[in-house]
Amino acid sequence: MPGPLFHHIARCVVSLALFAMAPALATDGRPAADAAEAPAVGAVRAFLLERAGGLGDSVAVEVRAPSAHLPPCVAPEVFMPGRGQKPWGRVSVGVRCGEQQRRVRYMQARVTVTGRYWVSAGELPAGTPIRAGMLRAEQGDLSRLPANAVLERDRIVGQEAARPLPAGTVIQSHQLRKPALVERRQAVTLVAGGEGFRISREGHALDDGALGGRVRVRLSNREVVTAQVTGPGRAIGYEADHLTMQGMGKLDHFLQPRAKVAVNDAAMRQRMHKSAAEIALIREGARVADVGGYAIRDAIREGTREIDVAMAGRDAMEAEIARAFPEAEYRDTWVWFQSGLNTDGAHNPVTARALQRGDILSLNTFPMISGYYTALERTLFVQEVDAASLALWQANVGAIWQATPEWAFKAGYAWDESPVNDDFRTARIPSGDRDWVTLGAQYADARSGWTVDVAAGVLLFDDEEVNEQNYDVNDEPMPGAARYRGTYELDAWSAGVQVSKQF
């Protein structure tokens, strides 16, 4: 039977065994170290999964366990210590522990977010409006992208490249800029309002401005104010005959109007109603156009370049506008001037061609005063007019006689040479020279706005002989071929009546 010493030794062995086992036991049956780490690690993992869950197609989180000597974290509360820190890549996460959450520890984690991002499909020069087809989707770890990478395609499309972007460039926010909706010198409308009132004034922008940006605007009284470029949710009127498809796309993307109304017809009707001040300004514009015309006439010399003549007219008009309108803005006054063969198009550009004796000249002066254009168009010749041009010039005559403020009488004559000569005139093309004679009258009542126009005209053809014969390659009549001879007598009469009312 065991004695007292045995029992004492046995008790010691059991006690030592229990002492050795104690560090390895916890209330939930897991190792004590795991028990201390589990609440904090689990809370951090859940926190990061929630923060990064909607950023990509898949998310993986690896949390580094805290040091073993740290006490257990009771009731952990996780937070991001860095303001604006992205929840991916290598992140440091703060954890408040304890019932009072007075103890704070920091844990390290690696978050891998796999998803789609956008790169330039080809080279994009600076200033290029970016469309959807210019982008290519890539798949990869988003945490390895530049910090300012833009992941949403809608935030890229419609913007402009702020700098050249080579093909395959990951699109970043600093590489984009909003397109300018307002350009410098553009006419703009300022709107200010409040409860029960709305005030609008016209002005000109002094800066380029994007949606939401601020620009300086000069009013008609020279006052300069700062305004904001506004947009979304408004009913927008536009002139359909001036707005390009690209401009319409920008309007839809940036302004997002609730309705679009084509106002070009109404705007044109409105422009036709001129105030007394507008009429006075237009009359002054016509006078300034004459100043440019006289300067051009005086500058015309054999051997002088087209561009020198055009600049003489432009400079004279700008100087006259500055003298007569010292408070106006001086821009867009210009001259079209062509000589010789360059006159085949009405709006051909000015060249350095030297004028030659007998050249036909075409001049157009366009002075602008406070946004109003006035045009003068004339045809001239250098020193002398060739016989053919003089004949055509003298063959077209028209006259208007203003008998009373209400009544005006009109008459006109024109001679039109046939393009078909005797050698090629046939029964199907019996064309000959033609004379045009027209008579007309107009009654206009300024008080009522009614206007009545009546006109009658006659087109007189010369009697033409037709001798139609088939000829061989030697220009000899072919024997046995059909032959047609005849005389054509043609006249045509026309008449018209027009009644209009100005509202």
Question: Could you please describe the fold and organization of this structure?
Answer:
This protein is of the alpha+beta class and 503 residues long. It is built from seven helices and 25 strands. Among the domains are: 24-112, no CATH class; 114-177, Antifreeze-like/N-acetylneuraminic acid synthase C-terminal domain (Type Iii Antifreeze Protein Isoform Hplc 12), CATH 3.90.1210.10; 395-503, no CATH class. The chain has helices spanning 4-21, 32-52, 245-255, 264-272, 276-299, 306-324, 387-394, and strands spanning 58-63, 77-79, 89-97, 103-120, 135-141, 160-161, 176-177, 187-194, 197-205, 214-219, 224-228, 235-238, 259-262, 334-339, 360-366, 368-369, 372-373, 376-381, 397-402, 407-416, 434-444, 450-461, 464-469, 483-488, 491-501. Strands 1, 2, 3, 4 and 5 form a five-stranded antiparallel beta sheet that branches. It has a five-stranded antiparallel beta sheet with strand order 19-20-21-22-25, with no helix packed on it. It starts with a helix and ends with a strand.
Relevant terms:
single chain; 503 residues; alpha+beta; Type Iii Antifreeze Protein Isoform Hplc 12; 5-stranded antiparallel sheet; 22% helix; 33% strand
> Overall mean pLDDT score?
78
Radius of gyration, rounded? 44 Å
> Could you tell me how far the N terminus lies from the C terminus, measured between alpha carbons in angstroms?
134 Å
Going by helix content, strand content and strand pairing, the class is alpha+beta
Portion of residues within helices? 10-25%
Strands, count: 25
Low-confidence stretches: 4-36
Strand content: 25-35%
